[in-house]
Design goal:
Radius of gyration of chain A: 38 Å
Distance between the termini of chain A: 59 Å
Helix content of chain A: 25-40%
Order of helices and strands of chain B: HHHHHHHHHH
Number of helices of chain A: 10
Largest sheet of chain A: 7 strands, antiparallel
Structural class of chain A: alpha+beta
Oligomer: heterodimer
Shape of chain A: elongated
Number of strands of chain A: 24
Number of helices of chain B: 10
Structural class of chain B: mainly alpha
Strand content of chain A: 25-35%
Largest sheet of chain B: none
Shape of chain B: flat
Number of domains of chain B: 1
Amino acid sequence: MATTSPPADQEVAPPGGGRHEGDGPGRPPAVSMRELGRWAWRQLTSMRTALLLLLALALAAVPGSLVPQQGVDSLRVAQYRLENPTLSQWFDRLGLFSVYSSPWFAAIYLLLMISLIGCVVPRAVVYARALRARPPRTPSRLERLPAYVSYETDRAPTDVLADAENLLRRQRYRVDRDLPAGPEIGSETGSGAGSGAGAVPTLGAGSVRAEKGYLRETGNLVFHVSLLIVLVGVAVGALWGYRGSVIVVEGQGFSNTLTQYDEFTSGALAGADSLPPFSLSLDQMTAEFQTEGDQAGQPKLFEASGTVTRAPGEDADGFDIRVNHPLTVDGTSVFLLGSGYAPVVTVRDGEGEVAFSGPVAFLPTDSSYVSEGVVKVPDAQPEQLGFEGLFLPWAVQGSDGVSRSLFPEPANPELDLFVYTGDLGLDDGEPQSVFALDKDDLDLLEGADGETLRLALTPGEQVRLPDGLGSVSFDGVREFARFQVASTPLSWLPLAGLVLAVAGMTGSLYIRPRRTWVRARAAGDRTVVEVAGLDRVSGGDLATDLDDVVARLRDEEEGATP
Amino acid sequence: MNTEAFAQLSNIAVASAAVVFFLALLTHLAEWAAAREVLPARSEPVGARARGGSPAAPPHPAGDTGKVTRSDRLGGIGISLTVLATALLAAGVLFRGLAAERVPWGNMYEFAVASALVVAVVYVGLVARLGISWLGPIVTGFVVIVLGLSILVYVPAGPLVPALDSYWLALHVSAAAIAGGAFVVGAGASALFLVKNRAERRSPGSGERGLLGRLPTTAAMDRLAYRVHAFAFPVWTFAALIAGPIWAQNAWGRYWGWDPKEVWAFITWVVYAGYLHARATAGWRGKGAAVLALIGFATLVFNFVGVNLFISGLHSYAF
């Protein structure tokens, strides 16, 4: 992102910034390494390269929106891998499952940043010089400038020039005055004396030269520097931040340690021991839905309430987390991402012992909260048991015999389960998802009729499993909250950078550098006044503004004439 | 009035606006068709205008002879119809807000209608200030298409889903709509710039005749495109890179997560940044920059249509 003032309308080289202005590709001088290096640096920091890098960045970002991303939705990535094994190998090689942390994406934005620095630094030096520069000398032939007005008056040239100087200063110009050379001199001590030698073309003529709009270049530099600030801020947040998600069922709790998370990612420099040691317990998860109208079934309110203990030993406070209203503890925030149902299931094994009892979170798969989940019972004897199935909050029997859920609220809950026996594969040390069964060593249970056994349980119902494997009961329903716990250090920094960037951008887009000159010269007993202006970027209404300057000068004159 | 009455009024107003925009489009097309018939005949004495395709008045904007061509009249009618349609659409959006008792851009339908309103308001405002009625056919055509397609995603007025229940909805979405509306006008100017630029390159002087003669000079179109983009770009930056991330931080616990909608908003931003740079780069001024503006606009449209319909993500409820 080299920094030639992007907005220039008909680009006049910015103060000293011309090096990047339209650098052609040139030809590599095949001489020394040093020259080759200089050539390469010039290429990299040229405007054209910056432009191509910008386009490359836009293009490179595209695949990340089309291919599921590991950092965004790892579940979909896993699914994609299952469905497209061969293609996935290639995607892995190209880093397409994690575009935004891939080397080639990084290469583009790092080159862009180098290009930006290589452009901002020399430009800032030039700009620092321009900050103290005085308005340019008065052209000898003002009438050739794009806007020009002249008139005659009875006032002395020095008075006219003094008025012009005041007027232009009020209009926030940087102003210098060249006193008339010749007899008139001496009536006043001029502020700009000595600075404009050679700028007075006619004997007896003095001029005021004024320039404004220096802030355009300031804005331009501020914009580009703030992009670097944003990048630093984002990098800090990514390196020291962490983010995890966890499902908490009503009546249960969560303490902020690594092992409690369902999913956890952290920056390279964030230590797991740096997690603030708070814990919370969820009393109630409320999910309300529109019950009438065309939007029936749309969520209306999500609210999780309970108590939080900010540090071990401290008293618990109540909390109330809603979507868009997180809970913040020690720089870590707890967000409510969604809700769901956890049927309470009790499984007795073949020996009559309770092998499992408790709520099991089922993940909603659609807006009517048809939810999928599994129950793993490793302690069942004689064989381990696994259940896989659907939870329907408001079950209705379709005409085709398939159950559906009519509405997200649990008015008529039903738990449909398939039963597996065998080895759950929990003992071989491979980490397993709690939401899926590893079916390699499991057998699907069949009913007496030889068909696949499908249990359909309503609350309070208990069903006996065939072959003396035990029984399963559906005791009730609890809701769960899905929380995201996240800490992003210095998250205000990229924000500040972007606010600065917008401010700078606005300055560089809307401030129009302009030069105005006023020359007054004695002609007989009258004074000829010439006023001329030059816009350094087009788009302004130069002629009208200049007429306004003239009108004001003449007003002064009337005021001054006795 | 109760909310249902407002909802009904809103639907009527939006539908009428769509019809009137369509009439305005037809009028502008007739204006262009009439302009095609007009041949340059500057030596023709004032008042010697004949109807029906015989040599007639010099085309706009060279029509400083004081004559009003049929084409000019049609253009004027088109503008009046556009103003009327814009007023109707504004009423439709207002009533929708009263019906739903919240800001009227809480789902895809409402966002489409509100964005169409912004396009129309930006255009009408610029017609008044800068006389850009030459963009009439493009803008009215675009608005008609958007309003027509919005029927496909129509939902009755109702409350917000909890994820959207935040004041950032007012800021983030309205800023996106304002920037988007300006980008539409900018894209229209850039597209016509390319058309005229190409014609003039192929046969110099062709830009002063007939249909192209109704357009301003390529330099003027380029300047307008730039001014509109220069307005839209900071607003887009605010919408996509400031308000959006702040809201995302509040709602999802991260300010940037490469959600498909975020990705495409970023792509749009980068392409328009490229446009602004291209205008200052040798070899890219004019045509290159205009092409970039159109690419930027294409990414914007894809973000609204393609990402919503084909790619699932966190923004899937709307916009």
